[in-house]
């Protein structure tokens, strides 16, 4: 079995998971700090998904950190399958949530009647959507690395 | 190299590609038949992506059909890499377009002022979004099959 940078138990994977946790936490923070987000289904969906991505990324960052510190690489096929499946599901959901939020934001900002979205509030929502896209991008790197490792089994 | 059902050059792949072409054409038809879709960025994005998915799926359906009729399986690594890459890019874009359209539709339908989206028009947009999701679902099956075949090389 070849070693794949970014796969579970490596330093690159630890950095990617930390990045995912930070970006998804920022997305959740900026979205929930903008009062009234719960009026929009897309924003509620984003908050829900970010609420799932944060513990997932954080747990996997801990596992990676433990693996690096004890110098015991995780080469268990069952664990890798669960990680790949979880990553894939959350990856799809994150992209769907970030895209729908971006679509709604575009409509809110482009509308003639902007009373529903003052510039300051919309700015927070925009930062939240960007952070969700960044989290999704890092998640793609992790998913592909783990998929490569699994397929080389 | 093992044979994977759904990978390029097989009967299952031909059926999947035809399904993708039909669903994406329906999505494009229902969206463009609803006058005024160009006022919404998410709907324009969906139309653009469906305009890319249709020729891609149709071309691959033709290649699959040719491969089945001549009984010459396509086992060229270069072609498979291009198909996997194209599938992955279009898969991501289709999900993003369908999700953003669904988000915008939810906002339009749920809004108090429904003058921007009469029920008949919104119905067409909804069917278009559903068709795009179905096309994305079939595209996922094709992508995974081809990825499995490529990884078994």
TrEMBL record, chains A, B:
Residues 9-138 form the Casparian strip membrane protein domain. Its main location: membrane. Keywords: Cell membrane, Membrane, Transmembrane, Transmembrane helix. The chain crosses the membrane at residues 37-63, 84-105, 125-150. It is a multi-pass membrane protein. Belongs to the Casparian strip membrane proteins (CASP) family. PANTHER family: CASP-LIKE PROTEIN 5B3, CASP-LIKE PROTEIN 5C3. This is CASP-like protein. It comes from Buddleja alternifolia. The lineage of its organism: Eukaryota, Viridiplantae, Streptophyta, Embryophyta, Tracheophyta.
């Amino acid at each position: 079995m070849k070693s794949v940078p970014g796969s579970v138990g490596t330093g690159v994977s630890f950095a990617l998971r930390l990045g995912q946790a930070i970006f998804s936490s920022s997305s959740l923070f900026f979205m929930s700090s903008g009062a009234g987000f719960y009026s929009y289904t897309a924003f509620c969906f984003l908050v829900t998904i970010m609420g799932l991505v944060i513990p997932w990324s954080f747990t996997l960052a801990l596992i990676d950190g433990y693996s690096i510190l004890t110098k015991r690489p995780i080469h268990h096929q069952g664990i890798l399958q669960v990680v790949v499946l979880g990553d894939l599901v959350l990856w799809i959901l994150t992209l769907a949530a970030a895209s729908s939020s971006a679509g709604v934001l575009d409509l809110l900002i482009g509308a003639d009647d902007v009373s529903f979205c003052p510039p300051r509030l919309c700015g927070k929502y925009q930062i939240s959507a960007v952070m969700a896209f960044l989290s999704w991008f890092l998640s793609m790197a992790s998913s592909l690395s783990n998929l490569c490792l699994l397929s080389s089994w």
